[in-house]
Design brief:
heterodimer; A: alpha+beta; Jelly Rolls; Arc Repressor Mutant, subunit A; 2 domains; 4-stranded antiparallel sheet; B: alpha+beta; 39% helix; globular
């Protein structure tokens, strides 16, 4: 069926084919059936804002399809991208559990399908299904882990070059190209967004990419980046 | 036989420790209680997670380390806190290093035992989820303070602007 955004809306979690791959979604049938009762399946266009940092928590958003940009903002308007969330992730989790304001801003970067669950319903659901509660704990742990990584890279790196090199290496691993001699990465983000991920300016990112290209460390082929010299990139990442 | 948590005077003040009598019995049977000297490393970042430590008394320093050996202090944990929770639940490596600042009494619970205990006690599982959420909030606050005040000058200026 041809839908507006090319999105194939999944109405029921019980028949969802992608369920098995996602930690949270792969629940026992009984839990899934009661989840089915409290969720609202919704679709968002690209660039929609699911929730804003500082807002009182309404509930959780389970990302079924598409990608969502998670960022935090300083009072003077500087933005830092923490993560690009992918299908299967639960967003707004810690705020909904603790009742504190959302700590991040979530903005879709693709057309997305999202399952929304109201906070009160979600808390009741967790109380009734200990298996789901454990899954939530696992998701939170992963988020905590990546927040610690972010702190490490922001707080302990010397230079923007080091942070960029680390980010590129991380992406190669994520794409399953980590073991290859010349890994390829599809650059889905703009220089501006990359700058926001590593806490530097757009100009610096552009300059660093130009330098790396000049030194034959990376090569751009359209929107794909080929890492020609992994050893040099690793050396940059550990200086 | 370990001394039971049911005799602990601080129990009622600490959300995690304040369990039902049955749950306390269950917890008593899986915990290992010990007194450790000041300066003991409870766990080091990067090591596979064996379990959690509940800090009964004393304080512990949580820090992060870069490849080049530079250290970043995250925070000081106090009595009643659970350390190593995230790594233990996800089964990854410990994400931080925890070092005791005082000679302290701690309770250690193995990963396998903890998971089973949480599955059997949904209320405690909820409390654990709440703890993790708080940890995460703290971590995001830290990301904000480190990542968004780029220049050293602005980081120094902050306390002054708060005072005025």
């Amino acid at each position: 069926m041809l839908s507006p955004y090319g999105l194939d809306i999944i109405e029921s979690c019980l028949t969802c084919k992608m369920r098995a791959d996602a930690i949270f979604c792969d629940l026992p049938d009984a839990a899934l059936q009661s989840f089915e009762q409290i969720k609202y399946a919704t679709a968002y266009p690209k660039g929609a804002i699911l929730f804003v940092e500082g807002q009182a928590p309404r509930g959780i958003f389970v990302l079924c399809k598409g990608r969502v940009k998670l960022s935090i903002c300083s009072t003077d308007g500087k933005t830092l991208i923490l993560k690009i969330a992918e299908a299967g992730e639960v967003l707004g989790l810690s705020a909904s559990v603790s009742g504190k304001p959302y700590e991040l801003t979530a903005e879709t970067i693709d057309p997305c399908q999202v399952n929304f669950v109201k906070r009160e319903d979600f808390l009741r659901f967790l109380k009734e299904h200990s298996e789901a509660c454990l899954r939530v704990a696992e998701q939170l742990s992963e988020k905590y882990n990546s927040a610690c990584r972010e702190i490490r890279s922001l707080g302990l790196s010397h230079s923007a070059a080091e942070k960029l090199a680390k980010l590129l290496l991380e992406w190669t691993v994520k794409n399953g190209e980590g073991a290859k001699a010349e890994p390829r990465i599809k650059l889905a983000l703009t220089h501006e967004e990359i700058a926001q991920m590593i806490g530097t300016s757009r100009e610096t990112v552009t300059r660093l990419f130009a330098e790396m290209k000049k030194r034959q460390i990376v090569q751009a082929k359209g929107s794909t980046l080929v890492i020609r010299n992994k050893t040099a990139l690793k050396a940059l990442a550990t200086t | 036989m370990q001394p039971s948590c049911s005799h602990c005077a601080f129990r009622s003040d600490r959300p995690f420790c304040d369990m039902s009598p049955e749950a306390t019995r269950g917890f008593d049977s899986i915990k290992e209680q010990e007194v450790l000297a000041k300066g003991t490393l409870l766990f080091a970042e990067g090591r596979p997670a064996r379990g959690v430590y509940v800090l009964c008394e004393g304080r512990a320093k949580l820090s992060l380390c870069s490849e080049s050996g530079k250290r970043l202090m995250l925070r000081v944990a106090g009595p009643g806190e659970i350390l190593g929770l995230g790594a233990t639940l996800s089964g990854d490596a410990y994400e931080v290093t925890a070092e005791l600042l005082d000679t302290a009494q701690v309770v250690f619970v193995k990963r396998k035992d903890l998971l089973k205990f949480l599955r059997d006690n949904p209320l405690i599982c909820m409390e654990v989820v709440r703890r993790l959420s708080d940890d995460l909030h703290g971590a995001y606050d830290r990301v904000r303070s480190i990542g968004l005040s780029r220049a050293r000058r602005s980081r120094l200026q902050r306390p002054r602007s708060m005072a005025s």
